[in-house]
Amino acid sequence: MFSWEGTVIPRVGDGIARVGDGIAQVGDGIARVGDGIARVSDGIARVSDGIARVGDGIARVGDGIAWVGDGIARVGDGIARVGDGIARVSDGIARVGDGIAWVGDGIARVSDGIARVSDGIAWVPKLFSICILKFLKCFFIPLNHLVKTFFKPFHLLIIQRISNNSIA
Length: 168
Known about the structure:
Layout: E1 11-12, E2 17-18, E3 25-26, E4 31-32, E5 39-40, E6 45-46, E7 53-54, E8 59-60, E9 67-68, E10 73-74, E11 81-82, E12 87-88, E13 95-96, E14 101-102, E15 109-110, E16 115-116, H1 125-167
Antiparallel strand pairs: 1-2, 3-4, 5-6, 7-8, 9-10, 11-12, 13-14, 15-16
């Protein structure tokens, strides 16, 4: 019983329907789909492009839904990623390696219980102090040079005039 009208008609070779373009294909009595419906090889549904993928009875998704290798949901693109029971996100939500949330792109980063921001909202103490020192150095060294070269002769003239007046 083989029907072929277009591309979405089930074909049967041995009593099991299989379709290669998005409906359902089964080799051993389990439906599998390679383009976003559901694919199962051992009784567990897995999908390669955005629905759900499970290798060991736990749903995993590689493009923004949820992905679990060991019973904990992880997402690689901004939802939540957990390797050890703590949610971590790699692009701006929250990342935790040891029970403390941190974010690598301007929200808040904590590695040892103290919130620190690396690049966009608040301050990095060392970098801030280095920038201030460099600014002050660049500003005050020319100012000091200007004072020494321009104002010193007037200062000496005033002192000389005072001393001349006191002598006279």
